Structures are given as C-alpha cells and as structure tokens.
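Q: Joint fold for the lines below.
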Amino acid sequence: QAGLTQPPSVSKGLRQTATLTCTGHSTNVGNQGALWLQQNQGHPPKVLSFRNNDRPSGISERISAATSGSTASLTINGLQPEDEADYYCSAWDMSLNAWVFGGGTKLTVL
Amino acid sequence: EVQLVESGGSLVQPGGSLRLSCTASGLTFSGRWMHWVRQAPGKGLEWVSGINSDGSGTFYADSVKGRLTISKDDAKNTVFLQMNSLRGEDTAVYYCTDVDAYWGQGALVTVSS
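A: Joint structure:
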C-alpha cells in the first residue's frame, strides 16, 4: 500500500521555526486530512494534531498544523531541545480502507 | 486516564503462531474502530490491521493478509491479533491503537530461530 511522503530529516536551530511536510493523495490527506505523531526513541507515538488540525489537550501551543489540498504541514515555533524526535503523519485512505503513514521525519534541533 | 495495554508478545520461531491482546481502561471499544500498527526495529510505522466499530468488518495490509486475524470482544473490552505463519519480517513492536488519539505501549514480537 502506497504511503505518504515526508522528508527524512529536518535540522533547525534553537528557538527557530520548523515546518514539516506530508504529501498524500485525494483519497487520504485530501479527503479527511492528516494527523501528526511525535515519537521519541523507545516510546510509543503521541498524537500532536488531530485530522482537523486541532491540538489534543496538553499539547504545546507552539505546535500548529494545516492542510492544503493533499499536503499537510506541521509547524513548531520556538524550537526547544525536547522537540528533537521523529515525526510521522498519517491519514485514513478511503480507497484502501487502511491507515497510511509517512516514512517519518527526524527533527534535529541544533 | 485512558490506557491501552498490549500483551502476548514473545520470541517465536518462523512459521509459528502468536496471539496478541489489547485491553483498555478508561475507554470502551464498543462503537470504535481499532487497529494494530507495527514498527520494525529502526523503521517507521506500518498499519497492519483494523476492525470496524461493530466488529463486522476487518481490514488488512497486503503484507499480512491471510496470516493475521483481528477480532474484538466488546464485553471484555479487548482486541486481539492472531498471528500465524510468522516470518522474520514480522519482527516488530505491535501497537494497539485507534490511531486518532490513543496508543498502547506496544508488544514486542520477535520471529527468529
């Protein structure tokens, strides 16, 4: 099953802004949006943003998500050391009846 | 607080079988789609299987179709993944999740002789 496309890595400086992208298709991201997950080494994924781009309770206001057509983006403002992690996007694909994931972006905070 | 707890992960020989369970507290599976997502060592997330809210429909990734079976028992608030004919490439941490919001801690399945 075809997945979503994410850049493998992004590096930004402390207190800078990082924007991560996720490209899908009309049957997935373009249909119901994408959710974003953060994963630290050895831990399960944590939802940062719902498919409607809202943040779950407890997620920092420095994090925001948006969708334009079949491309989703996650923006993290004022980067902190604790933002260094792997970030995945995911969407429900209506033609596959399956969740599809991006390959993940490793965010490095310099 | 919602908790999803997976159990049943272990070391199994190629061709063997295993049954994973996922039990929830603070959350009811009734009326909710549930899924299994796996992550091979050092790799990304891969959706494996899902079951719809009333249990009448099950869905599988092509890589596991015919070998893995998802089911759920709403009365016990438990989701299962029966894994047969296991292969080395099935080695992964298996997460029980609704994907949208809640994820378990994961169960490690290692397929090796």
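Q: Anything notable?
A: Chain B is about 0% helix and 50% strand. Chain B touches chain A at residues 35, 37, 44-47, 50, 59, 61-62, 95, 99-101, 103-106 (CB under 8 Å).
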